[in-house]
Design goal:
Layout (H helix, E strand, L loop, with lengths): L4 H24 L2 E11 L4 E11 L2 E6 L9 E11 L2 E6 L7 H4 L4 H6 L2 H17 L2 E6 L7 H10 L7 E4 L3 E3 L9 H6 L7 E3 L3 H13 L5 E4 L9 H13 L4 E4 L3 H10 L3 E3 L6 H10 L2 E3 L13 H16 L19 H6 L2 H6 L4 H8 L1 H7 L16 E4 L15 E4 L2 E5 L2 E2 L17
Parallel strand pairs: 1-4, 5-6, 6-7, 8-9, 10-11, 11-12, 12-13
Antiparallel strand pairs: 1-2, 2-3, 4-14, 14-15, 15-16, 16-17
The structure holds zinc ion.
Length: 443
Amino acid sequence: MSTFMPRRRAGMLAGVIALQLLFGSLAAAQVTAIKAGRLLDPESGTIATNQVILVENGKFTAIGPDVPIPAGAELIDLSGLTVLPGLVDAHNHLALTYKEVPERNSYYLTSILDATPLRAIQAASNGIQMLAAGFTIVRDMGNSGNYADVALRQAIEQGWIPGPTIIPSGLIIGGLGGQFWPNPEMALDRRIVYPEYLEADTPDELVKAVRQNALFGARVIKICVDCKPWGYSTDEIRLVIREAAKAGLKVEGHVQTIDGGKRAVEAGIWSIAHDRGMTDELHKQMAIKGVWRAGTETPISLTGHTTRERYDQTVALLRNAWQNRTPLTFSTDADYFVPGRTRGEVAIEFIETWKAARIPDGDILRAMTINGYRVSETEQVRGPIKVGMFADLIAVPGNPLDGIDALRDVQFVLKNGMVFKRGGVMLPAAFFNGGPVSGWNAR
Ligand SMILES: [Zn+2]
């Protein structure tokens, strides 16, 4: 293999470089200058006024109060708005919208009725809805049929459609049945759990499952730590972490019991999804070990998607995590349709839980931005509004530091230096291309 692959790769690379040179030279002349009335830095929680931001070839090239605007630059006047970095949802399911009737939150029927291509198209639509709400990065944490999440990432990266930067998990790795409880005929004879879950019950199967997801384009590995009473042991989780590290991937654990939470934290997992397995003691350990918390805190205002009892627990646990300085990310677990709302509007509604937990606006914003970049591992290339970074930003009329609800009114979205939304209206023409303008992307 090694004698053949480099030649094929070399040929492909040459083509990519030629395309990029051609494209780069055409685009080099075009500089975009953004006048930002207020430029918000979530890291410091400060605002600089009357800034000029220059964008060229999809990246920030200059930022400051006295930056001269080059002749011929396209001028975007956001002097009446607050400009800030894009938002991150650290746990969404763009390729899943379960059917309220008859299955509600079980989605077994959806996985049988809806083919992966259909779900991929839905994921594309949901991705656009997220971007319109200001989410420029989405970690897509499984339940994507047969790698619809990876397909979405590739389509966006190649420049076919607009969408957030996608961090896909590929198939969720779990024991036989995954999160479902299939009968023997369904699980063993029909293999009907596939492709919703990647079944792995032994160390060998775990290694193979991690390698499969890495091969097929996952950017993070997700395991179901305790979806069944037997679950994965601390050593098995460690094995997954080691194997994923060979591919440069981190591991997120779906955790729904306190015992599962203990095993995941003990194993040194990267991030934990959901808050059912969280305790004061675990929050303290996560703070010490730097384990990211993706609590998926469903607000009571999304009627029917949580209960009062569950919500009160969620609010108390989120507050406890914040008090313990547990690394917090903003995450939704959105996999349903709320009539009258886009997927992005459903996601932003989750700030209600954070407000109820009395978390300061600046800290909510940090969870939604810089912590999101870190858990997504994009912080060196994408996220912060800094020279050299990919040019993603959003703008709102209000000041999120004076009331996080300002984020409900995203008027402007820039992604990869291209305008996606302006004056509150989606104008995504620049994002539709018949070919791979950003180069063919290998998996
Ligand atoms: Zn989920």
